Structures are given as structure tokens and as C-alpha cells.
Amino acid sequence: AGWFGAPHAGDWSSRLVAARPAAGQPHPASASGSDTRVLPPVVMTDVPSASRFAFPATQDDGSGPLTFDPCRPIHYVVRDRPEVGDRGAAIIAAAVAEVSKATGLEFVDDGATDEAPSTDRDLYQPDRYGGQWAPVLIAWSDAAEQPELGGRTAGLGGGLPLRDTHGHLTYVSGTVWLDTPDLAPDLATAAGSAGVQAVIMHELGHVLGAAHVSDSRELMNGENS
Q: How far apart are CA 133 and CA 124, in angstroms?
């Protein structure tokens, strides 16, 4: 078993939340979808305490947090590394399935990509992904590519929002960085793989609009083992 440092996404996440498409940028569609959910909503039996959930950003008018549109599936792609391969693909699929079940949001696997992760990633890349928003990018990476993965940080994640004509912000994409040197060796065991899955789920939580929480028992706590 290894120590799995869920990230202190901090400044990076804040920069992504503040990002806006350039004026006049071609959009494949509006930020909002249809009025019908893709999956049924998750039934909440109670409201968690403030120590158990938090949001990194809310709407300008205070009406609620930034979220993805539940009436559209969330497409995602994976940038692989030779050290990971099929084991990594399986653990990402398991993490995505658990996050979908917990949130009532549908995810669609669009396969592999060679896109390198970036903090200034374009929301719209028609030459690479066609006429849709760039899918969520889950990238196996390292500290040489993303210095914030140095030390005990095993992953980073954040969402990319779009402001519609009514001023409402909706996430349409995002990025997850996974520290390959830290995580790949743990895929060799069942216990290690469970820890890697938890890191991926934590980062996807950031992509979907969840912030770190103070309760050490929660998945979104800043440090987990």
C-alpha cells in the first residue's frame, strides 16, 4: 500500500474556473443541452455538513455551484503511457463508473488521444475532436510535464466552464493529470489499484465541481491514504 496524495489543486483549479473562451470563438453548441436528464438524478436522503462537501466556484448571482449539464453526456479521452497500458485503462473505467453512479452524470469513453495536458487547454478543438467541445482529458503524466505533480502529489484536476448568453456558467470539459511514476507501480496489486482508483475519482470530483473538504474520511479530503 502506498500513500496517495490527493492534490491541492488550488491555484491551478482557480485559473481554470476563471478561464473564458475568447470573444467570437466558434461554439459547436450552446452550453446548455436539452431539458431531459440523461440519467436519473441521485436521491439524497440528507444534506451533508459543510465539512463533507464544498464547491470551488459558484454562479455570479449566487444561485448555485458550477456544474456540468446533466442533460448531456460527458465525453472523455485518455492519454496513455507505456508504463500503464491496459491496467490503467481498466482502473479509469472503474473510477468513471463509480463517479457516474454517485453523481447521476453519464460518461462516454471516446478512446485514446495523443493530446498533451495543458493549463490553457482550448475548449474547442475541431481538428482533433470534431464539432463538439473538447472531451475531458485524463492524462497519465509526470512532474517533468506538470511540475505540480512533484513531491507527494499524485494527481491534479479541474473543470473548464463556458458562460452562455444569459451569463450562466456551465462546465463543458476539464483535465485530470495522473502522476505515472507514483501510481503505475501500485497497479500491480489489488490494494494498490484501489488506491489509484480513489485518486482518479478524487480528481474527477474536481473536474465536476467539487472542492477539498476538511473531513478526513471523505474522498474529497486533500490528503488520503
A: 5
H/E stretch holding 169 reads strand 169-179
Kindly report, residue by residue over 59-71, the tens digit of the pLDDT.
999 899 999 999 9
pLDDT tens digit sequence for 21-59: 443 444 455 554 568 999 999 998 888 898 999 999 999
Residue 79 gets which letter from DSSP?
A: E
Contact between 211 and 54 (Cβ < 8 Å) = yes
Contact (Cβ atoms closer than 8 angstroms) between residue 149 and residue 141: yes
For residue 139, how far is the Cα from the chain centroid? Answer: 11
112 Cβ contact partners less than 8 Å away, ≥ 6 residues apart: 77, 78, 79, 80
- Tally of CB atoms within 10 A around 163: 13
pTM for the complete prediction? 0.86
